[in-house]
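Hi, can you check this record?
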Amino acid sequence: MGRIDFINQNKRNILALFAGKQYKEAYEKCQELLAMDPTLTDITELKKKIENEIIKTNKNVIKEHINKLKPLWKEEKYEDILRELKKLEFLDPNSMEIKKLFAEAQSLYLKKINTLKEKFLKNEDKKIKELFEKGEDEQRFLDELFYLEKRNPGNKDVLKLSEKYRWLLIDRKIKSKRDLLNSEKFDDIRNFLIQLKKIDEHYSKIKELEDEIKKRELESKIDAKKEFIYKSETNLDTLLKLKKYDKAIQVAEELLNIDKEDKQAKKIIQIAKAKLFNQTNKETVKMIKDAIPKLKQEYRQNKKNFIKI
């Protein structure tokens, strides 16, 4: 078969396919011939004719499918509509009608989702609020919040709702323990704050309480230190007046353990040590003087028991 006969035979085949509305196969045959010889103008024209027919057919298919979507619009099945329009877009990517319908369906779908979301959150809020206001079973209340978060992982609105009620619970517990928080039972307060952190460690009010308690505890220690120093210094004066120098030295050393730079304590230690030394010497001399008469008497009675040097 010669080249011309081959081309003519293929052209007849293309026309037959076109007549049978087998546009895809006819179009592919045109592409094959033009790949072999791009100068075949009659085949080029036939290809354009097939393209126009495909566009026309696709438009009819699109129109037919769009009409079939009407019940879905009434039923508000926007997700299904979007899925079908996406398929139709393949037939005509430039269809303004498809683009318009897609944008409309997308807008209505988002609106529907937001409405359902609001309804869901409203129902959950109502249910949790009832549990919170009853205040009968705190663990059940916390479990409900936990399962709500687990059922909706990553849902920011759910996390926000859960956070709101966790904070409300913490506020209620703080209010109930106000007497404790105002006291100086700092160990008990710290244990209470640990329990609050188990509910939500990120609540800023817990951090504020921790800072407040640390400040008060420090102030309490400073006050206790001042009180100790005041009483100790008063005792020092008394001890010196009573000539209890050893006790004065002991108290002064305790003061220096608290404040190594306590000038008063340093001064008193020096005074007390000097006076204690003098006092001890005087007591020793007195003891010896008091013992001399007795020793002389013993010597007279028992000379042989004494060693002469």
Summary: The mean pLDDT is 84. The CA atoms of residues 169 and 201 lie 13 Å apart.
